[in-house]
Amino acid sequence: MDLDEAIRQRRSIRKYRADEPIPREDIEAIIEAGCWAPSSTNIQPWCFIVVEDRETIASMAKAVYDRFQAISKEALGKGEKRLAAFCRFMRSYGSFFTDAPLVIVACSKPYENPVLKMPIATVIEKTRQYREAKVDVELIMVDTVKKSVTMAVQNMLLKAHSLGYGTCVMDTPIAIKDTLRELLHLEDELDLVMVIPMGVPESTEVKAPERLPVEEVMRFHQP
Ligand SMILES: Cc1cc2nc3c(=O)[nH]c(=O)nc-3n(C[C@H](O)[C@H](O)[C@H](O)COP(=O)(O)O)c2cc1C
Fold first, then answer.
1. Looking at residue 113, what is its pLDDT?
2. Which residue's CA is the closest to the ligand 1 atom numbered 17?
3. Measured from the CA of 150, which atom of ligand 1 is nearest?
4. In order of start, what are the domains of the chain with their CATH numbers?
5. Which residues of the chain have pLDDT under 70?
6. pLDDT at 150
7. Ligand 1 atom 21 nearest Cα
8. Residue 172: CB within 6 Å of ligand 1?
9. Is residue 171 in contact with ligand 1, taking CB distance under 6 Å?
10. What is the 3-state secondary structure (H, E, C) of 165-213?
C-alpha cells in the first residue's frame, strides 16, 4: 500500500467482525512494524501484550464502562449534569471494544540505557545541581519512554490498516489502569500506555473526521 494512501485512509474503527480472528503471522507483522519505530537512544522501551481471550477483552471493556457509569451516576445525584454527561460519553468511548477479536495493550518499560551506567533518577538529581546550565533532564526523561511507545503504536496502526484490519488507538481505558493491570497480570515494571482493539472492520465506510488545514497548523518562524 502506498504510504500516502495508508496515512490518509486509516480510520479509527470501532466495530469488528467478531468471528474473524487475526492470524498469528499478521499479529507478528503488526508488532514488528511497531518495533521499527524510532525510540529515544534506541532503548525500545516497549512491550505489547496481545489479548485474544474473549472473556478478558469483555472484562476489560466492562470495567471501563462500570467505572465511568459509577461516576456519572454519583455526579448526577449531586446535580453535576455536565460531569455526568462527560462520563456517559467516556463510558462508551472507552468500552466499545467488548466484542473485538483482539486487543493489543501497548506498555512502556522503565528507561534503561546501558550507556548511562547509572539510574536515570540519579542523572536527574545530579544535573539539578548544575543550576547555571538550566538543563531540565527530568522534562525529557519522564516522558521519553511513552513518546517512544506512541511512535511504535502509530506504525502498528498503519501496518494493520495495510493488512486490511481496523484499529482504534485508545487511552480512555488507561483511566482505570490499576484494574487492567490486575486483569492482565502485568509485571510491576510495565506501565500501560495505549489500548488498541483491532479486527476485520464491520464496515469500511467510515467517514473521515475533518482535519485542520495545513495553513492553520503551520507557521514559519520569523526571526
Ligand atoms: C491519544 C489518543 C487517544 C484516543 N483515545 C480514544 C478512546 O479512548 N476511544 C476512542 O474511541 N477513540 C480514541 N482515539 C481515537 C480518536 O477519536 C480518533 O483518532 C480521532 O477522532 C480521529 O479519527 P481517525 O482516527 O479516524 O482519523 C484516540 C486517539 C488518540 C490519538
1. 75
2. 12
3. 1
4. 3-53+99-202 (3.40.109.10)
5. none
6. 97
7. 209
8. yes
9. yes
10. CEECCECHHHHHHHHHHHHHCCCCCCEEEEEEEEECECCCCCCCCCCCC
